[in-house]
């Protein structure tokens, strides 16, 4: 429940701090005195967007702070999900700086407006006059039925399944789109893959073939170089190996005289062996070198095929072609894979749809089972409110479409008087009747959903006399199990409160200021008497006020 509210530098309020109790709290004041400012300030605490124009003094910051006792609300999980520090006595603070920047805090931890809005849904329900139109909303009507039927867990299961169903639908649509696109490209990709596969490409093959081609294309030149090199090394009289052999023999003799020449001899021996090996390889290459025009042509054809594929695919190596071949292979095979995946998702979708239909049918059955009782309870609540012959006929139609809250479409039909035909609520109920119906609905919601705090902003508009007294009694009874605020102009309602605040506006030094004051018993008598008789308070009005309070 809301235990404390402080407002600084907001609209007409310079500073005020108010403590609240549970049960029914009344707020009264002249039209324009600033009662709505309290609601707007609370709206900021609950995540409403800030307006710089609301600063009373544009050079100072605005601070609105609300204290809530949430011991029995079981909000630990919500605080954890919102990454907030939980406290039984939670403080929500909103600051608007002169720069226009807005900041929000929960228990002195900075947070976002979205978090405030989510938290606010569990703290206060502010009912303004225009929200009576919610009665015309199918979503609101179904929500009332679900709260009455205790469908919370069932509805949660349905919505989780609906989320899965939509996810599988999206997956299926995406896969079918991919399948359609792949089918369009399938023939061309298969052709490209076959072309690359026929080329029988191997990594490093291009460099090897290019080397072989150069040799075969220049076989005479290569043979001449090999022959000349071999002759220089191996000529019996003047060849390098012959001369090196002579040098080696002389150094060998030196090594026999002194060991210090042994190293020179070993180096010459190694050089001689290496040159002999080179000479042998030159001879072997020379013997193997044969002009082969046919092999040259085959190599040339292979290379031209490689070059054409590289140009076609805009690459410069066989390794890149092999990557393209692998990619094409996956795409071609992927068409079959997509088909398998589509089948798998279709099975999941079919199962989820079955589960979803079962949950929707359960919701429909539970809703249908409480319609008569819900109608009767609303009728009984509004009978003493000047609507003794009002009747409701709540109808559910089971649709073929999965909606956000089931497959039900709802029609609330209403008849306000005897002999009057049923018609849609929004077309047959007057504004005053809608206010009374909404109070009855809020009373039911409050008992069933355990709302902590409800603020009624002139929900009694359009009624008076005994009806107003009965509406006040309903709010008083609601205050026995939750915190109720009622902003009212009716003395019958004002007299029902456990706590009564008055909002007053006055001018001081050309500045208009609103204040809010907790009234004592005598002040309450004066305020209610003024509500009864106007500015001139009569003795009769004072007596009537005392009677109302007693």
Write up what this structure looks like:
By secondary structure, the chain is of the alpha/beta class. Among the domains are: 191 residues, 3-Layer(aba) Sandwich (Rossmann fold); 156 residues, no CATH class. 56% of the residues lie in helices and 19% in strands. The protein has 17 helices and 15 strands. The strands form three sheets. Strands 2-1-4-5-6-7 form a six-stranded antiparallel β-sheet. It has a six-stranded mixed β-sheet with strand order 8-12-13-3-14-15. It has a three-stranded antiparallel β-sheet with strand order 9-10-11. A hairpin with a 2-residue loop joins strand 14 and strand 15. The chain starts with a strand and ends with a helix. One of its GO terms (biological process) is DNA repair. Belongs to the RecN family.
């Amino acid at each position: 429940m809301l235990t404390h509210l402080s407002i600084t530098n907001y609209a007409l309020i310079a500073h005020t701090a108010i403590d609240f109790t549970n049960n029914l709290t009344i707020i009264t004041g002249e039209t324009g005195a600033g009662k709505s400012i309290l609601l707007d300030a609370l709206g900021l605490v609950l995540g409403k967007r800030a307006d710089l124009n609301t600063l009373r003094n544009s050079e100072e910051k605005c601070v609105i702070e609300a204290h809530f006792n949430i011991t029995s609300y079981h909000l630990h999980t919500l605080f954890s999900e919102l990454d907030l520090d939980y406290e039984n006595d939670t403080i929500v603070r909103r600051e608007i700086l002169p720069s226009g920047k807005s900041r929000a805090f929960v228990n002195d931890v900075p947070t976002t407006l979205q978090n405030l809005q989510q938290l606010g849904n569990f703290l206060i329900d502010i009912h303004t006059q225009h929200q009576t139109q919610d009665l015309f909303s199918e979503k609101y009507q179904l929500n009332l039925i679900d709260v009455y039927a205790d469908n919370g867990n069932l509805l949660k299961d349905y919505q989780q399944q609906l989320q899965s169903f939509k996810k599988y639908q999206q997956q299926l649509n995406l896969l079918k789109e991919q399948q359609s696109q792949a089918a369009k490209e399938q023939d061309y990709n298969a052709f490209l893959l076959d072309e690359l596969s026929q080329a029988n490409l191997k990594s490093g093959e291009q460099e090897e073939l290019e080397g072989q081609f150069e040799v075969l294309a220049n076989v005479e030149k290569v043979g001449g170089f090999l022959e000349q090199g071999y002759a220089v090394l191996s000529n019996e009289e003047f060849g390098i190996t012959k001369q090196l052999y002579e040098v080696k023999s002389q150094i060998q003799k030196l090594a026999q005289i002194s060991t210090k020449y042994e190293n020179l001899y070993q180096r010459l021996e190694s050089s001689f062996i290496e040159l002999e090996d080179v000479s042998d390889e030159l001879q072997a290459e020379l013997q193997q070198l044969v002009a082969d025009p046919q092999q040259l042509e085959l190599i040339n054809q292979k290379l031209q095929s490689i070059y054409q594929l590289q140009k076609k695919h805009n690459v410069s190596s066989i390794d890149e072609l092999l990557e393209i071949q692998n990619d094409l292979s996956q795409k071609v095979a992927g068409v079959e894979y997509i088909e398998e995946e589509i089948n798998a998702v279709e099975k999941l979708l079919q199962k989820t749809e079955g589960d979803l239909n079962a949950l929707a049918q359960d919701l429909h059955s539970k809703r249908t089972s409480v319609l008569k009782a819900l109608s009767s309870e609303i009728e009984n609540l509004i009978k003493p409110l000047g609507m003794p012959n009002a009747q409701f006929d709540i109808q559910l139609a089971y649709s073929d479409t999965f909606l956000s809250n089931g497959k039900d479409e709802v029609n609330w039909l209403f008849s306000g008087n005897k002999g009057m035909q049923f018609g849609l609520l929004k077309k047959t109920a007057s504004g005053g009747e809608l206010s009374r119906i909404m109070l009855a609905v809020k009373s039911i919601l409050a008992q069933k959903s355990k709302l902590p705090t409800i603020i009624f902003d002139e929900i009694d508009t359009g009624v008076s006399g005994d009806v107003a007294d009965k509406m006040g009694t309903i709010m008083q009874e609601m205050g026995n199990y939750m915190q109720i605020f009622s902003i009212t102009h009716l003395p019958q309602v004002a007299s029902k409160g456990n706590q009564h605040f008055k909002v007053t506006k006055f001018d001081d030094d050309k500045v208009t200021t609103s204040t809010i004051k907790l009234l004592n018993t005598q002040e309450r008598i004066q305020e209610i008497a003024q509500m009864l008789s106007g500015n001139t308070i009569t003795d009769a009005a004072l007596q009537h006020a005392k009677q109302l309070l007693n």
